[in-house]
Amino acid sequence: MIEETDSETIIRISDVLEYLFCSRFIYYMYCLDIPQHEEKRFKVIKGREVHETRKLTNRDYVRKKLNCIRKESDVFIASKKNHIKGIVDEVLFLEDGTAAPLEYKFAEYKDKVFKTYKFQLVLQALLIRENYNIEVNRAYLCFTRSNSLVKEMEITSSDFKKAEKIIEEILDIVQKGLYPKTSRSSRKCVDCCYRNICV
C-alpha cells in the first residue's frame, strides 16, 4: 500500500520487489488500484508460515557464526528522506561496530542470490543506516530449505545508489501515472495475475 504523508509518497520494500519482477505491477496496483491477490500464491503463503514458525524456534545458532553481539527482531523502519518503509527480520549489531540485516527465505540456495533478494537487503541496509546512524556494508540471507544455510552479501555505495534510483523510478510511475514497458521475459507473464489485462 502506498501511503501519502505530508504530500510525500512512501513505498514498501515489497513494492520494489514487485517492480523488479515487472514494473507494470506498480501501475496496476497503484495507478489502477487492481489488487494482485498474492495471498493465493503458494510461495507467499509458505513464506509467511516460515516467518511465523521462525519466531518460535531458537535462532541463536545462526548468529553465533556471524560475530553478532546484539540483535533486534521484526523491526519496522521507515525513511521519509528515501520514501521507503519495511520490516527487517533481524537487525544484527556486529563486533566490528557495523550493523547488518538478516532475512529468512523459504527457499533453497542454488548458487546465486536473486536480484530481488539482493535489493530487499540493500533497501533494508539503507533504512538501518539512516535510522540507527550506523555503517552497514553487508547483509545476510538464511535459506531455510537448505538446512538454514546463511550467505553473506557485500553492500557497496554503488548498491545504495542503484536502490535509490529504483525508488525514484517507482515514484515516477505512482505520482505521474506513467505506463511502464513490459517485462523482457515472457516466462514471467505465464504466472502473472495481471496477464489477462496486460497489453
From TrEMBL:
<dbReference type="InterPro" id="IPR051827">
    <property type="entry name" value="Cas4_exonuclease"/>
</dbReference>
<dbReference type="GO" id="GO:0046872">
    <property type="term" value="F:metal ion binding"/>
</dbReference>
<keyword id="KW-0411">Iron-sulfur</keyword>
<protein>
    <recommendedName>
        <fullName>CRISPR-associated exonuclease Cas4</fullName>
        <ecNumber>3.1.12.1</ecNumber>
    </recommendedName>
</protein>
<comment type="function">
    <text>CRISPR (clustered regularly interspaced short palindromic repeat) is an adaptive immune system that provides protection against mobile genetic elements (viruses, transposable elements and conjugative plasmids). CRISPR clusters contain sequences complementary to antecedent mobile elements and target invading nucleic acids. CRISPR clusters are transcribed and processed into CRISPR RNA (crRNA).</text>
</comment>
<dbReference type="InterPro" id="IPR022765">
    <property type="entry name" value="Dna2/Cas4_DUF83"/>
</dbReference>
<dbReference type="GO" id="GO:0004527">
    <property type="term" value="F:exonuclease activity"/>
</dbReference>
<dbReference type="GO" id="GO:0051536">
    <property type="term" value="F:iron-sulfur cluster binding"/>
</dbReference>
<comment type="similarity">
    <text>Belongs to the CRISPR-associated exonuclease Cas4 family.</text>
</comment>
<keyword id="KW-0540">Nuclease</keyword>
<keyword id="KW-0051">Antiviral defense</keyword>
<keyword id="KW-0378">Hydrolase</keyword>
<keyword id="KW-0269">Exonuclease</keyword>
<dbReference type="Pfam" id="PF01930">
    <property type="entry name" value="Cas_Cas4"/>
</dbReference>
<dbReference type="InterPro" id="IPR011604">
    <property type="entry name" value="PDDEXK-like_dom_sf"/>
</dbReference>
<keyword id="KW-0408">Iron</keyword>
<feature type="domain" description="DUF83">
    <location>
        <begin position="14"/>
        <end position="199"/>
    </location>
</feature>
<keyword id="KW-0479">Metal-binding</keyword>
<dbReference type="GO" id="GO:0051607">
    <property type="term" value="P:defense response to virus"/>
</dbReference>
<keyword id="KW-0464">Manganese</keyword>
<dbReference type="InterPro" id="IPR013343">
    <property type="entry name" value="CRISPR-assoc_prot_Cas4"/>
</dbReference>
